[in-house]
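Dear Dr. K.,

Following up on our conversation at the group meeting, I've run the structure prediction for IS66 family transposase from Aequitasia blattaphilus. I'm pasting the input sequence below exactly as I used it, so you can double-check it against your construct before we proceed with anything downstream. Let me know if the numbering doesn't match what you have in your notebook.
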Amino acid sequence: MPMEKLDALFGEGCWRKMTVEEYKRLRYEPASWTVERHRVHVYVGTGGEHQDEFLRGTRPKDLLRNSILTPSLGAAIMNAKYVNSIPVARIEAEFERNDVHLSRQTMSDWIIKCSERYFEPLYQRLREKLLEFPVAQADETPVDVIRDDRSAGTPSYMWVFRSGEFYKETPIALYKYQKTRNSEHPKEFFKNYKGVVVTDGLSQYHKLDRELEGFTNANCMAHARRDYADAVKALGKSNPDVVKRSIAYQALARISSIYKLEGTLSDIPAEERLVERQATIKPLVEEYFTWIKERLSDTSCLPKGKTAAGLNYSVNQEKYLKVFLENGDVPIDNSASKRSLRTFCVGKKNWIFCNSIKGAQASAIVYSITETAKLNNLNPYYYLQYLLEEIPKLIAEDRTIDNLKLDTLLPWSKDLPEQCKSKRR
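The predicted structure tokens came back this morning:
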């Protein structure tokens, strides 16, 4: 403000400057597009022994031959679909509104080719790292694939395999597309694995527990409470005393007591967690199983419906539900796997189905990259862009990549640029 105006208002010399007031506003700039024009000089011999021979200047490697795809564009498309759950048809429409004409077929083809050529080696390296963890977790969810040589409506499955919930430093979540839920699929993934795998009560994993030496299956306590919760919900607006006297309600109360104690142990070392579990949680678990067996043995008042299903589930899974009591690194349930599938499940509600097996396989690989990036507090877009910039440089003539070079690109690598790291912690 001009001094003359201040003197006129307050009187000459009768004022002083106070602390400057600052405020912020956030402005949004729509996505911008830049057309890169690359020029390569070409020469031809006009005489002598090199007549009619051509010489071209050097040029950077293309991601895909004769394609306009760049790392930033590829990362933007994959981030939109696999992180933000936007179908490629909507991405195509948004690009059109910005006068950028890219068909959904072209974008899908780019995703498939980039996953096969560039992300597959990193995926396999992450799998090797995952199998080094003493505890892993697994789950699966249905997915529709249109062109899979089977009758319409036949479900396929997207499996997820992840590191144990308590391993916070280098977490990994890997997706794998399969046509069925056959036990051969997890058996192939875990064929040389020595450790505990936490799952739902899927019998396929019980089979692996019996067949694979060194493989131990642990089951999910959250699943043990589902039927009880449904039974209580079915009671609706019954008299509160009637609800509280129900076997389902009492079972839920017992499981809740176990969870309440377990919740206090999440941030302590595994050794201490095991000691606390043995001292405080194990007695509650043993009491729970004694109680449900008494309910099932009472022929005068046998439970029915969902309540009976809940009691029988726990009895049948007893061996697997107790594994967490003997290993401080084993979580009480499989909720971490459910969280790892959440983004995929949101996505499939939007895009409904995969068009082909190759598309489903590519999606599994890209989801593995983006979900693992998120678990490691990376910004998925910048991480994808960085991978598409760097991996092509590391590929040898025989299409292989040295593991030591790949390790510099892993989501927890100290060599990643600061831009890849998420500001959200």
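Two things stood out to me. Residues 221-331 form one domain. The longest helix spans residues 270-297.

Best regards,
J.T.
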